[in-house]
Each structure stands twice: as C-alpha cells, then as structure tokens.
Design goal:
homodimer, transferase (chains A, B), 54% helix, Glutathione S-transferase (chains A, B), four-stranded mixed β-sheet, Glutathione S-transferase Yfyf (Class Pi), Chain A, domain 2
Chain lengths: 235, 235
C-alpha cells in the first residue's frame, strides 16, 4: 500500500503527467488510479464526494490525509517534501513561477484545439481552432520558448541551478507536447533555442526517469492537452 | 521609500489587482508603479532587462531583492511572509489551490473576449467571442461558482476558516469582475450561491479594505481581464 495516490483520468498523459514525472523521477511510491479498471467511475464519484477541500478537477494527490489539487500546487508540495525544488525561499518561488508559466502555456496549447468550449468536440470548433492555431504558432510559441531560452542563459545547467527540479521535468513534457502537436512550427522555433534543446535532452537522459520512460505506463499523447491535427500546424 | 514594489500595467485592475488587494488589506507599504507617469515605458524596459529570474509578463513584485512573478506565486509569498494565509501546510496548500482555481476562471473570462488571439482586438474576433461567451455562460460560470459555493459549505466564514486569506480577497475581485462583465448571467447563478454572496459582502465590508476601496487608486474594470460587452451577456 503506497502512501500517496495520484488521481487523474486514464488514457491520456494530460495535466496528470506533470505530477507523474515528479513522482517517478523522485522515486516516490504512489498508487496510480488511472491504471485501475474503474478509474473513470472512481474519479467521478470522488468529484462529488463532500469534503473540506474538494478538487474542482483532476489531477489531485492524496498525501498525508490531504487531498491536494491544482497541478502546480501538487508539485509545490512534492518539491518541498521530497527535495524536488530548492529549499530556500527565492529558489522555491522561482521554480513555482516557472511551473506556473509552463501551465499557462499548456492551457494555451489546449485552447488552440478548443477555443470556444471544452464541452464541444474539436470538429465542432475547427474553424475557430484554425484561427487560434495561427496566432499560437505566430505569437505565442516564440514568446514562451524565447523566454525559456532566456531563462536558461542565466540558469545552468537546470532551471534552478545545480540540480534538476520538478519544473525541469515539466518543461521537458511541455516541449514534448509542443513537438507532438506542432512539429513543423516547433522545429523552426527550436533552432533559435539551443539551451532549451539541451535541457530537453538532459531531462530525457535522466537515470531517474529511465525506467518510467521505457515502461508501458508512459502513455502516448492521444487526444489530451496536446493534440496533433496536421491542419493546425505549419512552419 | 517602500520596501516592496508592485509592477503592473497602468489603467486597468487586471491581474495586478489580486496582488494589490492583498498588499492593501495586509497594510503592507508598497510602491505602485502603475500610478507613475512613465509606467508603460518602465515596464517595457524591465521586461527586456537581463536578470536571473525574469518575469514573462506583469504583475511582478520586487521584494527582498527578489523579482517574483506569476500572480498566485506573488500571493504565496505575501501569504507566508505577512500571515495572509494559514501557516500550517494543509491550509497553505488549500489557499494556493483555491487561488489557482480563481486564476483559471479569470483566464477563461479573458478568453471569452479574446478566444483567438491576444494580438487581435475584440472586434476582430467578435464572432468567435460570441460562441465562447455562450459556452462560458452555460457551462463554466455555473461549474466554477457552484464549486466555490460547495467549498463555502465546509469552510466558514472564510475560505480557510476563521480568518480571511488572500484567496478571499481574490474571490471577491473575481465575483466583482464577473458581475461587471456578465451582469445578467451572474445574477441568475448567484441566486443559487447564497454563501458566495455572503462572502462577497463580507470582503467588501472588511475594515482593512475601506481606505483603498474608497480611494481613486481603486480603478474601474475598463478594457482589462473582465470586460462588459452587452452582446456577450444573457440570462
């Protein structure tokens, strides 16, 4: 019986993956509810169960009697408790700041294929998505990636210095997601971002992640936060 | 000379307001750069100034030699340093979780009038905005507000119990913004949320906020995060 439980939808990496990577690289034992047969029903039941600190949506982590929701908040807890971020104030806030910026970009990447409503399918908003994708490719991908590159000019080899933090893991996953969803555009902008590409390679090579990334628990992107619709990509 | 500096765009409350309310209610002295004549030029200059921990966008807070960006991250700092959130782990994480949920809803409220691109005007994406507004009114306003109401069923009189936290102030501002932008729809959903309306009144009556709310430093919403376009509202 693991001390921690990660609750997230099965079948996609989604926002749960940012938490999963920290648990895996931190070698923290956890029960992964998404791997269990009745995961969807269990999540739906939990979402309506009365509790003092209810989550609005997955992911949430059960830990030490707490139900902790919001991806960046879960990571803040794991960072403090398991040394996956600096201890001192400035470093801890900096890693949280970078993580929140990663989550902002992930939300924007999702808005590209669902600009009107999460309650409609992509096909029902494909015209609006085409406009949103143009803006995301033209303005937002360069804005965010150039900012990360600038950050790595002053923070080496990792985002918070000498040791990787949960934000490095999340940034790797964000880059993986962008390269999956917008392969042509990502390749173009990545040419201007050598430090970012080095960081990406450095995370992929972490011994702490080797088992997980080589396992069948590590899921394909599919129809989650990051989606590949060829018509939404361009150089 | 104040110890702290709040950097945010002038002319709108925007995301800066969530920080400003915490500084004001916490009676924390600060320099408000938005009130200074050359604020825009100063912000633009700071955004390109090389530094170890650069902000991607305002707001950011200068404090104790740090440049802290991301609204919820600034509030996390202020909460810890100035007792504007519980000290103990579970309460601190809970307040951060609620704050992140507030920021999610604020971002969605912004996406309603800018569903395609922040680089285009509202008028250039008014048709897409009409579709986004329908979904926001129908699905998202009830989803978020009913969740806050459910939270207040278990957390009284404030979100984290006996004393107000920065998340109570932010929730008040979120409700003000929704009532401004979507007056008809907000009024309808608010009828199902008596605890939320009580919390709203309780924050508005805080003696710690009286000076600020009665001053001309407290700005109208205007064309910021929350915007009132009558064609985007409906009962």
């Amino acid at each position: 019986m693991s001390a921690y439980e990660l609750w997230y939808w099965p079948g996609i990496p989604g926002r749960g993956e940012f938490v999963r990577l920290a648990l895996e690289a931190g070698r923290i034992p956890y029960r992964d509810v998404a791997l269990e047969p009745d995961a969807v029903a269990a999540l739906q039941q939990e979402l309506v169960t009365p509790r003092d600190h209810p989550p609005l949506a997955p992911p949430w982590l059960r830990a030490e009697g707490m139900t902790i929701a919001q991806t960046a908040n879960i990571l803040l807890f794991l960072g403090e408790r398991h040394g996956l971020a600096p201890d001192e104030l400035a470093g801890r806030l900096w890693v949280n700041q970078v993580q929140l910026t990663i989550m902002d970009m992930a939300a924007e990447a999702h808005n590209v294929h669902h600009p009107v409503s999460v309650a409609l399918t992509y096909e029902e908003q494909a015209a609006e998505a085409a406009s949103a994708a143009h803006a995301f490719r033209t303005d937002r991908i360069p804005k965010f990636l150039h900012w990360f590159e600038r950050v790595l000019l002053h923070n080496q080899p990792w985002l918070a210095g000498a040791r990787w933090s949960y934000a490095d893991l999340s940034l790797w996953h964000l880059l993986e997601g962008l390269a999956f969803a917008f392969p042509q555009r990502f390749a173009g902008v990545a040419r201007d971002c050598p430090r970012l590409i080095q960081l990406h390679a450095r995370v992929a090579a972490l011994p702490e992640l080797a088992d997980y990334l080589g396992s069948n628990r590590c899921q394909a992107f599919g129809d989650g936060l990051f989606r590949h619709y060829p018509e939404l990509d361009a150089a």
